[in-house]
Design brief:
It is built from four helices and five strands, in the order ββαβαβααβ. The protein is α/β, with parallel strands linked by helices. The radius of gyration is 12 Å and the shape is globular.
Length: 96
C-alpha cells in the first residue's frame, strides 16, 4: 500500500528551488522523493514541515543528497534527523 506523499516544487525569491513535501515518507514512496530531488539542478531546499512520518528509507534518500540540500523541519522530526546524523551533514532549519 502506498502512503500518501505530495511533492511540490517552486522557486524561492533567492532563485533556489524548494521542494515541499506533505504527508508521510516511507519505503513505498521514496522513489518519488528521489526523482523529485534528482530532477532539480543546483542547491535544493526541502521543506519537511508537512511531514508526519519519516522512516529509514526516506532518510537514506536524503543522505544521498546531503551535499546539495538544506532541510526545513519541525521539532517533531528533530530526533530522527539528529540521531541519524543527517543534521550534522546538512543545514537543518527550524529544529530549535
Amino acid at each position: 500500500m502506498t502512503t500518501l506523499l505530495t511533492l511540490t516544487t517552486s522557486r524561492r525569491p533567492d532563485g533556489v528551488t524548494e521542494l515541499t513535501a506533505v504527508g508521510e515518507i516511507d519505503m513505498s514512496n521514496t522513489d518519488a522523493l528521489a526523482t523529485a530531488i534528482e530532477t532539480t539542478d543546483g542547491p535544493l531546499v526541502i521543506d519537511l514541515t508537512g511531514i508526519e512520518y519519516l522512516d529509514s528509507a526516506g532518510l537514506s534518500v536524503l543522505f544521498r543528497h546531503a551535499d546539495r540540500i538544506e532541510l526545513v523541519a519541525t521539532p517533531l522530526l528533530a530526533p530522527v534527523l539528529e540521531v541519524s546524523g543527517l543534521a550534522e551533514l546538512t543545514t537543518v532549519h527550524g529544529l530549535g
